């Protein structure tokens, strides 16, 4: 039995040679003595002793053998001078190198800023990990839908861990988006968006109150406004104590001014009002109010796993019997996760924005890697040209380490230049980048930890980019260099360089294909027939008074022949949220739960939307049935209800009795990520709708807009008209996809630029290296084609491998992404073909241009240069 | 100052090197201390004291003969130097002198 070999080796490695013999001897002696007593502990004891001997005094001091070598100022000066001269002598090559790197850097840094911004959402609250958002899952149609709201009447007093509960009602339209009049300008209107909340809003969240009451919402007639809003309404005068009239009638007092809500907050608002006001606005009593669903947040006093909290929230004392009976369940979800991880499928977490964040982290990393590969390839390719310098240096006494240090230093210089250049670029590119994203990324180059990340990237890249060229160049044998025997092999491994090129090409090809698929899908979405017409349509936000005078308003508009149809509805058919599970029809099984989309609309609306009537008749100006509500249903709804003869059938929506008077074609009511739902359109009066839809003739936007604005002004002189084009609202639905496609397009371009730089650099080098070979071949009568073939051969192999690698990967990624849409285009295989051909053609072109340059030289000249 | 002061453990080790003459080396010193003074030290501690004493000039060393139990490695044999001997004497003297100054009555533990 022997002592553990590794420990013995470790001892030999660290121990000072002059002490090794006795120390090792003692350790071994003790080991063999111990073995006689107990074999098992002996090894352990030996290891313990080895580590005990690991003391400063016993450790071998590694002195450089060359510590005495002369690193003089003159030498450093010479090295720096040579570097600069080299840079200037080949300005094209040097600039190409710096440019390539800085493009990669800039791109990566922009992504870094964006990613940091995305991850910073909601983290500015105090102890954000203790705040949970409550999600609601509703089971229907055999699966489960998830909403980010919960029952307003929720009572959490039975859960001891919950410290406070915040309830926030928010929305995009009245009564959340209100018209405020700046002081002294009664006819002007500034639309601002705000929330209604309970008292805890300002105590749980970190929205600092700058002036006034720190707890504004306990006062039932108070309003808290943001700095920006105070500025807009009152200018530089202190807003505290001022009276604001909501909807021109309900008076509230400004009691506090809070700091503008940061961009990285998922809750955004310009004012906050107490719930008491909302009850009055809606005209509901407490009991009715409690049936609403609001954004609910809880703050816990002690760390508790989300699962445990979820369990407690689903206790009958919290969720109530009534909701349980409706198949509703709650889930506690960390607030900071919501921004990035908000997609749920069938009640289970299924990604969200995080997928795009990860995608772009990958793309950013790839772009940087490509830039590094370029740099390495270009540097090593040039190595042969500097061989003589290295040879002379070595002969005059340089050792490998100093040569390596020299080249590392040079690489670092290049990287640093590129870094500085890219920081400047990023500073200038931030504004356009924000426009491209359509959202302000407040994180800058000097925000928080970002400078540290940047320096980290700088050092990482400097090391990665410098180490291989330094290693290759310092390995040159001076004798062979000076005897001019430097083979191609010694300028770095050819195969290594080819592997790098394969990686680079596959990444480029992959990115190009993926972005092609992305575009294809966006194209598919925007051109897919939704079942109704959304073009040439304006949506106008009406005031209540305007809806009351709607007939007159409509007649006034019709005076312009460009306006073809006008209708009103309570829900925008482009983006209906929620669903109605309270629909019953003849022959419905009692345990079936189906969620319908219901749209309350005026009688003109189906026609305005361009829905096709398949059976029955449309709503008429005069209602045909005064007791029952008339409804139109889609084919899908008929199919789901299983009605043979839908016309005249009576269905019930909640308590209301309805009669089906017609069947219309199916149409999509939300983004194409989701499957199409059955729809019921029910007729209602103008006053119960919330938006006016105006359809006009194609090409007459201006004329229609003018009439609309003027008519609105004449009916509502003290309000500014709020309107949207339906097309733009539609684009909103795919905001993430559209932003992503823009970014991907940008990165595709960058990937392409970097790849071209790489290919140009390498092709130049190859042609240069083979100058003599080509000269000899030409002398012996080779044709241009044959010489070109020689130059192509190397690249065609690399291209083949790159295609084989990139194809399947791009397919997998694209397929995965497409699967996220309920409706998507087929995999565009031609995209693969075009990309392969395009990249191949590009490479051919570059090589051909380079080859022609070499070929045009007189072979006698090239051969004479020996 | 280094070289003049003799620590308690140093004194103990120095004494044992004297006792073990001429076979004083790391393991032997460690064993002897355990036997005589009942103190169990680990080998690396003994080692560091020995080298320190050598640096202070109280000990000198030479390499001994290889033995089989050490895998053919030699021992470093430690020997007292003249100054080592003097240091021990001084320490001993100081101790007896100080001890003699303790009043007799203080040492009568009749209770």
Oligomer category: heterodimer
| Straight-line N-to-C gap of chain B | 43 Å
Biggest beta-sheet profile of chain A: 12 strands, mixed
Any low-confidence stretches of chain A, pLDDT <50, length ≥5? none
Give the class of chain A from helix and strand content and strand pairing: alpha+beta
- Beta strands of chain A, count: 27
Give the chain pair forming the largest contact, with residue counts: A-B, 19 and 18 residues
Low-confidence stretches of chain B: none
User: What fold name goes in the CATH topology slot of chain B?
Assistant: Arc Repressor Mutant, subunit A
Quickly count the domains of chain B.
1
How many domains of chain A? The number is 5
Question: What would CATH call the class of chain B?
Answer: Mainly Alpha
Cα radius of gyration of chain A in angstroms = 37 Å
CATH architecture of chain B: Orthogonal Bundle
Mean pLDDT of chain B: 86
General shape of chain A: globular
CATH superfamily of chain B: Winged helix-like DNA-binding domain superfamily/Winged helix DNA-binding domain
Walk me through what this model shows.
The complex is a heterodimer of chains A (866) and B (111). Chain A contains 30 helices and 27 strands. Chain A is α+β, with helices and mostly antiparallel strands and 866 residues long. Chain A folds into 5 domains: 5-58; 74-121 and 372-486, no CATH class; 128-338, no CATH class; 493-528 and 731-866, no CATH class; 544-718, no CATH class. In chain A, the strands form 5 sheets. In chain A, strands 1, 2, 3, 4, 7, 8, 9, 10, 11, 12, 13 and 14 form a 12-stranded mixed β-sheet that branches. In chain A, strands 19, 20, 21, 22, 23, 24 and 25 form a 7-stranded mixed β-sheet that branches. Chain A is globular and about 105 Å long. The mean pLDDT of chain A is 84. In chain B, helix 1 crosses helix 3 and helix 2 packs across helix 3 (43-56). Chain B has 111 residues and is of the alpha+beta class. Chain B has helices at 8-19, 26-37, 43-56, 82-100, and strands at residues 59-66, 74-80. Classes of the chains: A alpha+beta (866), B alpha+beta (111). At the A-B interface, helix 2 of A face helix 3 and strand 2 of B.
